Amino acid sequence: MRKIGWDAEDAALQAEIMTAAELCGNNQGLVKMYNPSLMAPSPGAAKPTIERETPTSAVVNANQSPGMLAAVNAADLALQKLRSQDGPIAIVTAYNTSTSSGQLAFYCERMARQGAIGIALANSPEFVAAAPGGKPIFGTNPVAFGIPQAAGPPLTFDMATSAIALFGVLTSKAKGEPLPEGVAYGRDGGFTTDASEALEGGAIATFGGHKGAGLSLCVELLAGVLSGGAVVGQCESKKLAKSWGHTMIAIQPDLLVDGFEAKAAAVLAATKASGPSIRLPGESSARTAAERTAADALPIPKQIWESICRTAEHGLPEQ
Amino acid sequence: MRKIGWDAEDAALQAEIMTAAELCGNNQGLVKMYNPSLMAPSPGAAKPTIERETPTSAVVNANQSPGMLAAVNAADLALQKLRSQDGPIAIVTAYNTSTSSGQLAFYCERMARQGAIGIALANSPEFVAAAPGGKPIFGTNPVAFGIPQAAGPPLTFDMATSAIALFGVLTSKAKGEPLPEGVAYGRDGGFTTDASEALEGGAIATFGGHKGAGLSLCVELLAGVLSGGAVVGQCESKKLAKSWGHTMIAIQPDLLVDGFEAKAAAVLAATKASGPSIRLPGESSARTAAERTAADALPIPKQIWESICRTAEHGLPEQ
């Protein structure tokens, strides 16, 4: 990370966030270093600054620093706003970032580990169509929740509102494998399992039919428009505009209800016990992380490891 | 409504909310009067009261008044909290209600018509399983958004996190028609199209696979636990506990970004223009409402109309 232009602090933070994702098998991990130029600082990038503060809110101008840095800033600031007021809710947005924010669960878990409910939304460049036959307009527009609970680490739930994450499509393309059925549209607007076609002239689908499309639109409005990030209808290309938008909401449960964490734990236990095949969000990530920690080894695809080593030695490839 | 025990004010409000839903073809409309005893006041019910206020929050104890009344109170209070502080966000919860809140879009639109982004979540009695083979534990747990925008009335998006609304299942059962594929589980935990089996020994499914299930769980935690409403693991039966939980969040966009409503309108226009089959949330409801208004007629199923007339004349049936 330092070799591509980040200072020690920002490099460490980005490495921490990507490694945390990689540890639990999330697709927002070290794969980001496969094309390191996408992760390099924009020309003229500066550290994030705070704009428009109120006792319960702030707007973070990322000043073209990476989305991960902006998102950590926004999450930490949301917690700080929560602690320095008399009420139980705060909102912080971020915009003008140079890269995506990676795994939103990271920021929600960070808030929840300090006792706050964390909600995070992000919009992103146009890869997802609102319906069959539509041009790509939404990003994979993820939503995540971090919920403190008494019986263990916070529950984190992090989902793209698209039927498949962009990195899922890129992975299929790289491996030459077909996509699952029903997750992407081809050039003619019908479903395709060809990752290349989905990326060039086609689009990713939203999950869950019109409900997923509605949620994706709401994320575009709440994380894109509300943050001041780039959105369709306001710029020619979100990809070129480089301004991922984030909205973080932190809620302190104590001022609303007694014993939130114990009751949340009871709901999770009852949910888990409600059937033989019930898996709580985060369960398989936690298992993967535990296995990798126990093995003291992180399996990294050869091409990505080679890219990381090459970048560490030589920096960015010549243009 | 007065004949089953509500005072003039509460009767008028509940009638307004149900008729608004009926006008736009929403399944949370006058069908609620098919079984009027479910809509009658609980013994000892009182008007909602406010508990635990802060400058940015409140908790509404519905005192066993109906969910619709509690939800209107919570939405209006969220707006009031928004107006009387220096920041852009407020949260109000409600619990201890005697009935469901009906159509959440009503409350979000109410907030958005006054320039605020409205977000509403509600938990409800156990009809929905978290995965195939699971017992019903979640409610249909809806989420709704109201977004003010410059080019017309607010965008409202209101979705159950279940694959089908409870009233959809009840309607199938009443008509003797099969359910759509993939929306409900039978007694053996596999999918069924038999509405009776889904209601007795089976369960409704969540929408969108594990993502919908995760969202439903988050609504249970954010609208059920956070509000103090009845939740699994904390009571034997949510149905008997009669305490639907609501969480309303109101956000004033001006303090975060300039020109929110115009930018939101641009996103909606770009989304609509992105393909031939794109329908924005609320478009078909608005068309239905316009047609019914133009015809000056509200089509009401005969059995429901007869129930309304019978109730207006004789009150509740003898037990």
TrEMBL record, chains A, B:
<dbReference type="InterPro" id="IPR043143">
    <property type="entry name" value="Mal/L-sulf/L-lact_DH-like_NADP"/>
</dbReference>
<dbReference type="InterPro" id="IPR043144">
    <property type="entry name" value="Mal/L-sulf/L-lact_DH-like_ah"/>
</dbReference>
<dbReference type="Pfam" id="PF02615">
    <property type="entry name" value="Ldh_2"/>
</dbReference>
<comment type="similarity">
    <text>Belongs to the LDH2/MDH2 oxidoreductase family.</text>
</comment>
<keyword id="KW-0560">Oxidoreductase</keyword>
<dbReference type="InterPro" id="IPR003767">
    <property type="entry name" value="Malate/L-lactate_DH-like"/>
</dbReference>
<protein>
    <recommendedName>
        <fullName>Malate dehydrogenase</fullName>
    </recommendedName>
</protein>
<dbReference type="GO" id="GO:0016491">
    <property type="term" value="F:oxidoreductase activity"/>
</dbReference>
<dbReference type="InterPro" id="IPR036111">
    <property type="entry name" value="Mal/L-sulfo/L-lacto_DH-like_sf"/>
</dbReference>
